[in-house]
Write a structure and sequence with these properties.
Helices cover 34% and strands 21% of the residues. It is an alpha+beta fold and 592 residues long. The chain has a six-stranded mixed β-sheet with strand order 4-3-2-1-5-6, sandwiched between helices. A six-stranded mixed β-sheet has the order 12-11-10-8-13-14, with helices on both faces. A four-stranded antiparallel β-sheet has the order 21-28-27-24.
Length: 592
């Protein structure tokens, strides 16, 4: 029996003692974070599944892990021997989550740590009309559970944000007044970091601070561990009209809210908070956090800084590709991890670099078919050979902004099929990057531009085409995205408007063979206005060469050839001042 199967069995023993029929373990924390601190990795500890999205349901006799198409291949491998079944969320033959919970619970109570379950999901559980029990059973079993982080927070200066915290809070208070609310509760870390213009290091790859906020018409209170605050940061908060209280006092203050109108986002507060408020007869005003959209539309200062971050990042990636193309010819010791480390060093050399924006995906050959492959989790290293393709999806957190880029690199001869699929992916990538559309169009409308060339060959990829990107915040940020359908993780579509930054990353993933992805970040800009309305388009923010050795030019139209040529010329123009003469000549030769 594997260690994970043993842990599932131990959890069932605790469940039996309390009359619990189904126990839920999410991927989240109190704050609905995408990458929670290690303290919250209960689902990983129990199941062995390391993906960033998934809900584990442990029933009386069976257990299932629900996750999306990005992780099907990965989950099948990681769950092997765990006694946990893979439940494919997007497979029409998979039982829906609520029905599965009801089935495996056998009429007994349903439980979980309600601080890590969203209010919306909690309300869905209420609909099953079974007893709900809020309890953290994993904490009783996990003896060496990591502590909550205590990393210092810091002020993010106005030179990078463009708008003061005081102005943002005033705007939020006006919104609160507009909806006749007395209090707003914020628990999502990116919203709080954006609102207060603070950053930290409590979440891997996301420069955020574990915190909560309560805003009234006259006050703004930040709940944060006082050990994270320097004297300078305390003074800054006071200047911006923000008072602070200890992080652990938040739930007690929630309990003291009685008979008040409270503005919350039920998708982004946890079920524990929701339950406390409703128990105290508070009127809940369910609105999407206003800051969710505000931070998605970057102001001119943020855009200016983001362009700087992308120039630095483009230099690092371009230097990396140039180095790798030469090194692979003679160096037989290169591995997925060693080349990823070289790229990291090149980013560090750019200045104002803080950390990666996510774990670098450096995937050779068949490993690239795993969309979220992690080379650092392998027991043995994968060596590169001067043939086939290496997919590198990486990004950086710079003081000026957040980056995300993918390039698929030919290390030597590639098959006709690989070249064909790369070219088809490129066609979709170029079509979306060069799109023109009327204001009011959403990402769901635009998604087909990237998928069209693949759909014409009856192929697809099991993920969205692109996601929003934060400004020295999360690399995955809503509400803007390119995806053609609603999923359990992503709800209503929103219009793509000027100031939004969204990735463009179609791909091909052939299990057991190879994976292909090309990714740029795109800034939505206004192009023109006429009697039909306002036409919008995209400005590429990402500058790094496209792999020309994988392009079958016979498949490209004259318009696509022009798009490709123009982009490659712009890459050289943007980066040449930071490249050596050898690197410049190499880059120029790619577009000949």
């Amino acid at each position: 029996m594997s260690i994970y199967a043993k842990r599932v069995a131990l959890l069932r023993d605790r469940m039996k003692e309390r009359g619990i029929g189904a126990y839920l373990i999410t991927s989240s924390d109190d704050h609905a974070s995408e990458y929670p601190a290690s303290y919250y990795e209960a689902r990983k500890w129990i199941s062995g599944f390391t993906g960033s999205a998934g809900i584990l349901v442990v029933g009386v006799e069976e257990a299932g892990l629900y996750t999306d198409g990005r992780y099907y291949i990965q989950a099948e491998k990681e769950l092997d021997g765990s006694s946990i079944d893979l439940m494919k969320q997007q497979d029409p033959e998979t039982m829906d989550l609520l029905s599965y919970i009801q089935k495996v619970s056998k009429g007994l109570a349903i439980a979980g740590d309600f601080t890590t379950i969203s209010a919306k999901d909690g309300l869905d559980l209420e609909g099953l009309h079974q007893k709900l029990v809020g309890v953290d059973l994993v904490n009783e079993l996990w003896e060496d559970r990591p502590a909550l982080p205590k990393e210092p927070a810091f002020c993010y200066p106005l030179a990078y944000t463009g708008v003061s915290a005081k102005e943002k809070i005033t705007r939020l208070q006006e919104k609160l007044k507009e909806v006749h609310g007395e209090v707003q509760i914020l628990t999502t870390l990116d919203d709080i970091a954006y609102l207060c213009n603070i950053r930290g290091n409590d979440i891997a790859y996301n420069p955020m601070v574990l915190s909560y906020m309560m805003i009234t018409g006259k006050s703004a209170t930040l709940y944060v561990d006082g050990e994270k605050l320097s004297q300078e940061l305390e003074a800054y908060l006071k200047t911006e009209g923000i008072t602070w209280k200890e992080y652990n006092s938040f739930y007690q203050d929630v309990k003291e809210l009685k008979n008040q109108s409270v503005m919350v986002d039920e998708n982004r507060i946890n079920y524990e908070i929701y339950s406390l408020l409703t128990k105290n007869s508070c009127v809940l005003l369910d609105y999407t956090n206003p800051t969710y959209l505000w931070k998605a539309i970057k102001n001119e200062v943020e855009i200016k800084n983001t362009r700087i971050a992308h120039k630095k990042d483009g230099l690092a990636v371009t230097k990396f590709i140039h180095w790798l193309k030469k090194e692979i010819r003679t160096n037989s010791s290169l591995t997925e991890v060693s080349v990823a480390n070289v790229l990291e060093e090149l980013r560090k050399a750019q200045g104002q670099y803080i950390e990666p924006s996510f774990t670098t995906i450096s995937a050779y050959g068949e490993n690239a078919a795993l969309m979220h492959y992690n080379p650092y989790q392998r027991s043995e290293e994968v060596f590169l050979r001067p043939e086939h393709m290496l997919l590198v999806d990486s990004g950086g957190q710079y003081l000026e902004g957040t980056t995300d880029i993918t390039r698929t690199i030919a290390l030597g001869p590639c098959s006709e099929e690989e070249i064909h699929h790369y070219t088809v992916t490129l066609k979709g990538f170029l079509a979306l990057m060069n799109a023109r559309f009327l204001r009011g169009v959403g990402g769901r409308n635009l998604d087909i531009l990237a998928r069209g060339p693949l759909w014409s060959e009856c192929m697809d990829y099991r993920c969205g085409t692109g996601h929003g990107v934060g400004h020295l915040l999360g690399v995955h940020e809503g509400p803007n995205a390119f995806r053609y359908k609603e999923t359990p993780l992503h709800g209503e579509d929103v219009p793509i408007v000027p100031g939004m930054i969204t990735t463009d990353e179609p791909g091909v993933y052939v299990e057991g063979a190879y994976g292909i992805r090309i990714e740029n970040e795109l800034l939505c800009v206004s192009l023109s206005k006429n009697e039909y309305g306002e036409f919008l388009g995209f400005e590429p923010l990402t500058w790094a060469p496209i792999e020309m050795d994988l392009v079958d030019h016979s498949l490209l139209s004259a318009q696509e050839e022009k798009w490709l040529k123009d982009y490659m010329e712009q890459v050289l123009e943007h980066l040449k001042d930071g490249l050596t003469l050898d690197e410049q000549n190499w880059l120029a030769s790619l577009n000949c």
